[in-house]
């Protein structure tokens, strides 16, 4: 074997070892399809200490299917980001856990058409967001009614709309609190307490945290929630 062949063999062996190492480390795969996407780049991302971190990426050129991988230490919220050079941010958040998650959506309605199947945590998040979407629809109706009442200078209607809006906010918070308590054995519970209830009474945040199982208290979001509780 010539010296050149030996060098090439060593390079190929090194590449194979790196490839095998990556494969053994990757315990999570995101697969899916973005209907009508011809060209673009998809990224698998997570929240870092001070910025978003890219975990994997794939260039889309004609074929809308994608497959992205990473290694997860525990269930965590990730993002599928689409870059298509239009000056806008396109991303879909989802809960990921060890295994395979399937995410299918469309180019036209990238965020709203997302259908996600995989982790049990994502199933819970789907259940929660479906209810929240109904609350959001009611809030839009109240905003439209508020606009018309202001336009017509109807003070009685405005007062009624404001009371209805306040009741809706309380109902949303109550649902989130109860949902988190009912799912105390899922990472979704502390996640909701952290990011869906920024202005909630600390008593309710304490209640959610105290009801968490020991395993969830020791999770990423459980520990973050614990720090918030200790500060308050």
Give a structural overview.
- This protein is α+β, with helices and mostly antiparallel strands.
- It is built from 7 helices and 8 strands; from the N terminus they run αββββββββαααααα.
- The protein has helices at residues 3-25, 120-151, 155-182, 188-195, 202-211, 214-217, 220-231; strands at residues 28-35, 39-47, 52-61, 65-70, 76-83, 90-96, 99-106, 115-117.
- The strands form 2 sheets. It has a 4-stranded mixed sheet. It has a 4-stranded antiparallel sheet with strand order 3-2-5-6.
- Strand 2 (39-47) and strand 3 form a beta hairpin.
- Helix 3 (155-182) runs antiparallel to helix 4 and helix 5 (202-211) packs across helix 7.
- The longest helix is centred in the middle third of the chain and has 32 residues, at 120-151.
- The protein starts with a helix and ends with a helix.
Overall shape: it is flat
Largest sheet: 4 strands, mixed
Helix-strand pattern: HEEEEEEEEHHHHHH
How many H/I helices?
Answer: 7
Spatial ordering of strands, largest sheet: 4-1-7-8
The assembly state of the depicted protein chains is single chain
Note the beta-strand portion.
25-35%
Range of helix content: 40-55%
The structural class is alpha+beta
Termini, distance in Å? 70 Å
Rg, alpha carbons: 23 Å
Would you count the extended β strands for me? 8
Q: State mean pLDDT (0 to 100 scale).
A: 89
Uncertain ranges? 3-22
């Amino acid at each position: 074997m010539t010296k050149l062949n030996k060098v090439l063999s060593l390079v190929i062996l090194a590449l194979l070892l790196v490839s095998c190492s990556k494969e053994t480390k990757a315990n999570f795969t995101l697969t899916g399809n973005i209907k009508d996407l011809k060209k673009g780049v998809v990224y698998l991302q997570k929240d870092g200490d001070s910025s978003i971190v890219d975990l994997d990426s794939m260039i889309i050129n004609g074929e809308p299917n994608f497959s992205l991988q990473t290694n997860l230490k525990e269930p965590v919220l990730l993002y599928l980001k689409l870059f298509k050079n239009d000056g806008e941010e396109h991303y879909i958040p989802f809960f990921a856990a060890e295994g395979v998650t399937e995410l299918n959506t469309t180019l036209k309605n990238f965020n709203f058409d997302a259908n996600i199947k995989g982790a049990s945590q994502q199933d819970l998040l789907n259940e929660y967001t479906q209810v929240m979407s109904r609350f959001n629809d009611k809030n839009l109706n109240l905003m439209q009614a508020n606009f018309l009442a202001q336009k017509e200078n109807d003070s009685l209607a405005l007062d009624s709309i404001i009371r209805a809006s306040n009741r809706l906010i309380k109902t949303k918070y109550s649902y989130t609190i109860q949902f988190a308590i009912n799912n105390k054995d899922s990472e979704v519970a502390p996640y909701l307490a952290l990011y869906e209830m920024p202005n909630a009474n600390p008593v309710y945040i304490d209640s959610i945290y105290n009801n968490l199982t020991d395993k969830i208290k020791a999770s990423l979001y459980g520990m973050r929630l614990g720090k918030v509780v200790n500060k308050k």
